[in-house]
Amino acid sequence: MSELIDPIEKKRVRWRSRRGLLELDLVLTRFLAERYDQLTPDEFAAYVRILDLPDTEFLELVNGKVETDDVTLAPIVAMLRSV
Amino acid sequence: MNVPVRHFDAVIVGAGGAGMRAALQLSEAGLKTAVISKVFPTRSHTVAAQGGVSASLGNSEKDHWHWHMYDTVKGSDWLGDQDAIEYMCREAPKVVVELEHFGMPFDRNDDGTIYQRPFGGHMSNFGEKPVRRACAAADRTGHAMLHALYQRNVRANTQFFVEWMALDLIRDADGNVQGVVAMEMETSEIVVFQAKATLFATGGAGRIYASSTNAFINTGDGLGMAARAGIPLEDMEFWQFHPTGVAGAGVLITEGVRGEGGILRNSDGERFMERYAPNAKDLASRDVVSRAMVTEINEGRGCGPNKDHVLLDITHLDPEVIMSKLPGIREISIKFAGVDPIKAPIPVVPTCHYQMGGIPTNYKGEVVLSTTDNHSDIVKGFYAAGECACASVHGANRLGTNSLLDLLVFGKSSGNSMIDFIKTQPENLPELNMAAIERSVARVARLDGQKNGTNVHEARSAMQRTMQAHCGVFRFKDMLAQGVAKILEVEEMIKTIEIADKSKVFNTARLEALELENLIEVAKATMISANARTESRGAHVRDDAEDTPANPNGRDDQNWLKHTLWHRDGNKLDYKPVNMTPLTVEAIALKTRSY
After folding, report:
1. What residues form the catalytic site here (chain B) (predicted)?
2. How many CB atoms are closer than 10 A to CB A72?
């Protein structure tokens, strides 16, 4: 499935995974190494949307302090919590 | 060579609090202002600041800027420039109220005024008792500040160049600054941003250390660019550390863990704090705990395969207590240390947090080369603000909540200085110094053409381990001397770093290599400045600077009440006196620093 994702877009999103908070950098580095290349186009699209969140909200989601009610984001949130 | 040139009144590198505060000043004055940033502005590292911003508003109890000034001078261990500190503390109430008007959602009192809370080191009546001076927006002060400033900048038509990396500063034959060379990440195209005035607001360089709380973007790009362009770096030996960060990650473990009964242990399982502080033990002050941890590691009693950390043990505590009193610590430990603290101790190490030194400026944000305390010899057209600058308000040690204040006060004053300077400049920009631009282009070409070179990751890791082991929170004479030789070896490695991926579009490997070339300049400045300063002052603490009646805490005012200036060329060190002449009040006289 992965070949359906634009390779240039994948590189752009890899850079956008650099954040203002260390905790997110650490989690996303692992995510990029372990899971990123296996994402389906839907999961990739969900990840791109999560990256639009402000860092503070993003971290709370990854830490499990808040839950998302967006069902399309849930799988990627679960992945980020497990790496 | 054909490098496109864009023209502006002002170019700002960095879109954190300081850069955006300056940009706002310039754009609202109607000037054409460009802000270059590696990441989207609201994802700058300012977002990590939680504590608040200090100002003697006196909303909850009586306060005065002069008391704030006293606390800041004392916090700086008298290395801060008193003209700049007076300026900052007097401006504080104004810039905080301005920020409120920009839409910053400060916590409020019932009467609608900004709520203020106490914060370490902030006192009333010249050190008498704690005062409520910190203004915060819940635990998201930095985040809220970035959002307020970004929205306001968009309204003022500031032009943001997001996902661009500045490569080098351009100075003409007389040393005046003409702008920067920058690279667009999407295409790797190199473009010149020519401007009448250039501001660096690129933040700190905490990534020079193996253990740092700084985000990955904090690579000291402005410091590297300034050093390569012949600008000295000031007081780079002064870095603030926190005693307990998760080893290998840098995420902080709150001191509350020791408060709840956490015990530090070495590789023998010994509770070593009993030897260093028989009474307070693990609850001794930050500097005592840090010093003990580093001594254990240096004497071979560190833990792990590299014997480079100690253990924070809470396995003896009731799991219920851990869950209720220390929320989040278990998650942090599992996620970043890979251990469940209910079952096994957490690996911890003193962790770098904040850089006090930087590009030398006066309180107007103008970059100064002078070795006198009157801030003459200004670099025309060049300004710096925020963590990358050294005004110097933090001196040898920063007071909590003064960093966000620094961003606002000196972001604004830089912006105003730039407006005044731009007005004096002819409408047509001068001819660019092509040699400077060519050097920058050649630096990228070297990287792309390098064969059989050093791996970027290995070189960065060597630098970080060297800094952590030889120039960390507590410093040893012999280790520093060895550290100088080692960091110069690492520099040689970095001269031949090579990247496998040479593609043009969002090439993260190339960006990381360019960042490493900036980090190494900061690492050298830090190690060499620290090796030379043979006293202890503030955050720079050495084993060979003894606590004597003449030199309390090892501070040697006779010989070392002066700022360090490190020059990249030949690693030469100069010194300049501390400014002890405030703008309107009497100097805060030298005293032993104790709390």
Report:
1. 286 (proton acceptor)
2. 12
